[in-house]
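User: Could you check the structure of this?
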Amino acid sequence: MIAGSLFLVLVGISSVWAAAQGFVEGHLKIISLKEVELAEENPSPKGTGENYTLYLLIVRTADGQKEVTQIVADPNGNYRLELPAGNYILDVARRTSTRLRATPRAFTVVSGKTVRVDMDIDTGVR
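Assistant: Sure, the predicted structure tokens are below.
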């Protein structure tokens, strides 16, 4: 009987924890103003030129003092992350460039909901 009660308590706790989860998703936009390039006679095929793996996104507590988790956008610049309900800040790790500029974005995760937070990064390349 004790084991059965303990099982029900654990199931109840895990159900409450699972219900308290929500999602944050968004798109990473890399702004890189480059000088005008002259058209080539035989241009070589090029990709998008954006390497999203260079820009680590960091989720911090609402006061910005504690790192909660990190995420890297997919090859298309999209990201999605499950988090406990609460207030957070999305920021960019500043390890790739000293000229990197991004404004930290505050957001709130609500249980069972998805919040959209897009992030723009200015690489400072001119």
